Fold:
Amino acid sequence: MKEIITFLQELQHNNNREWFTANKARYVAAQTRFNSFVDELIGEICRFDDTVLGLTAKDCTYRIYRDVRFSADKSPYKTHMGAFICPGGKKSGYSGYYFHIGTGGDGYPYGHMLATGDYCHDPKALQIIREDIAGGEGDFATIVHAVAPTFTLDDESALKRNPKGFEHETQYLEYLRLRAFCLIHHPDTDFMCAPHLAQRTAKLFRPTQPFLHYINRAIRYSKEKQL
Structure:
């Protein structure tokens, strides 16, 4: 992974079409290395979560080219590589395991990141998740506590007040007010560059599988209700 990080760091400082074109062969090599890693990681995750069986890197990875149509930042290229490993692939609407390698800086998108869940949920699925939490007698809290402190819940977009339909709930408010049900861990560059990365990453993801199952159960139910 060191070569990928070095390429992304240089791209960050030369984020223009001229430099990218001149270094296209390096990008292709980095992309090929990353895709090979993602295929290996999928295989490791399948050992404990068969919902992602049959996926390949193509189903889970993203283009490096940025969509700048509605962005003030007109940099043409992303300075990270990511893979979203979820049932049915990245466009399925289900939550999954996200692997993100950046330049090694601070914050998104520069820092490295592992995440389980998703940052954006369909409103119908979000409603069902909240109903499950409210009526679950603490089962969701148990699942979250089982992965702490390695993974933490993303609460940056949390509501200040109870969501509609839960105005009178007094338990589990820290969860009911979430708008993104996503567990996050920020590994350092040493972690990313050490041997056996796929196996070590899967080992971190494994305890988050019950959380993902909980979220995807609600998503699946919301999809069935729309049929």
Observations:
- The first strand starts at residue 81 and ends at 85.
- The CA atoms of residues 156 and 195 lie 33 Å apart.
- The chain has a mean pLDDT of 95.
- The longest helix spans residues 24-45.
